[in-house]
Design goal:
By secondary structure, the protein is α/β, with parallel strands linked by helices. Helices cover 49% and strands 13% of the residues. It is globular, with a radius of gyration of 19 Å. It binds coproporphyrinogen I.
Length: 341
């Protein structure tokens, strides 16, 4: 049983902490020289993910350097489409490519390869053996809408237009894609838990591009299904939902999905969230990644505002989205000092 010796996990279970725990989305990645060195040696992002020793090392790099309260598994949300049978490539400077894109090919034509998830579980196993006892180990997956935007377009897309157009044209086929992603995602998260993660986060990075009705149908409903299926297997493992860009729809998300904690992006006013989200629901966030790049007095006042707004709620300090590549290491150190003061 996790005791008070894992501050982040305690907050996810609804307890208020004396000192706000902190981790940063994308904390393992290109702003770290030790990451860039290992990536250069292994010759590419996917080579890192599929080398459990390297992936475990990268998961641990930010823990060693900064002592964050949470370690996030080094992998990617696009491993699920890869396991569903699309080919996956990451080319330098180009971003991810999935083929065939589902605008051109039927989902039924793909042959699932669940074995593509196995090496990730070996990474979890290795991290678990090396993690400091106070550090909470977080697994993750992408949410169906966000993952579907990549599966349909075959790559990142402006305003997710390809997926939205596809869904208008063929709502039945689009729902089948969401369902296939949801099923694989439950298995994937469950595999991560069996291998040793202690909580999981669902990234819905593109939740902000949808109408209220689409948000209900493609964000709330599939995430609710994932949480309910996942909880039937792992009732005690907390789930953090991160519907980036949801804004005024956050309260509906919190009530409808059944997450244990909610991630807030930097466009959300902490005072609004503190007042409007369900009582006692733990929140995570929501420093602007650009305030971290700025550092100095701007960082100091932004951090103080967030900590004081969430004074009455269980709160995990984080960014509003991933740390940017040109973030100075010294500013991350300043942030940790400010939060832990
Ligand atoms: O070295 C490199 O060039 C690889 C860059 C990189 C990294 C470090 C990619 C490619 N993925 C990751 C790791 C990653 N991705 C993690 C684990 C590490 C950590 O958090 O420290 C996580 C949780 C993700 C999640 C992820 N991947 C999201 C959701 C969160 C978000 O940032 O919105 C998304 C949308 C992706 C897709 C993806 N993977 C990589 C890139 C460049 C992209 C984005 C493409 C686009 O902008 O459309």
């Amino acid at each position: 049983m996790p005791g008070p010796d894992k501050p982040l996990l305690s907050v996810l279970r609804g307890q208020k902490a004396e000192k706000t725990p902190i981790w940063l989305m994308r904390q393992a990645g290109r702003y770290l020289p030790e990451y860039r060195a290992l990536r250069a040696e292994k010759g590419g992002f996917l080579n890192l993910v599929y080398d459990p020793d390297a992936a475990a090392e990268i998961t641990l790099q930010p823990i060693r350097r900064f002592g964050f309260d949470g370690a996030i598994l080094f992998s990617d949300i696009l491993i699920v489409p890869y396991a569903l049978g699309q080919d996956l490539r990451f080319e330098a400077g180009e971003g991810p490519r999935l083929s065939p894109p589902l605008v051109d090919a039927a989902l039924a034509g793909l042959e699932a390869v669940p074995g593509r998830l196995e090496p990730i579980y070996r990474t979890v196993d290795k991290v678990k053996a090396a993690l400091p006892p106070k550090t909470t180990f977080l697994g993750f997956a992408g949410s169906p809408w966000t993952v579907a935007t990549y599966m349909v377009a075959g790559q990142g897309s402006k305003e997710q237009a390809e997926a939205r157009r596809y869904a208008y044209r063929d709502p039945v086929a689009f729902q089948e894609i969401l369902d296939a992603i949801a099923s694989m995602t439950v298995d994937y998260l469950s595999g991560q838990v069996r291998a040793g993660v202690e909580a999981v986060q669902l990234f819905d990075s593109w939740a902000g591009s949808l109408s209220p009705q689409q948000f209900e149908q493609w964000v709330v409903a599939p995430n609710a299904r994932i949480v309910s299926d996942f909880k039937s297997r792992h009732p005690d493992v907390p789930v953090i939902g991160f519907p980036k860009g949801a804004g005024g729809k956050l309260a509906a998300y919190a009530r409808g999905v059944g997450v244990d904690a909610i991630g807030l992006d930097e466009t959300v006013d902490p005072a609004w969230a503190a007042a409007e989200l369900p009582d006692g629901l733990p929140v995570q966030g929501n420093l602007d990644p650009l305030a971290l790049i700025a550092g100095g007095a701007a960082l100091e006042s932004a951090v103080a505002r967030i900590i004081s707004a969430f004074g009455e709620r269980p709160h995990i300090f984080n960014l509003g989205h991933g740390i940017l590549q040109d973030t100075p290491i010294a500013h991350v150190e300043q942030l940790l000092k400010l939060v832990r003061q």
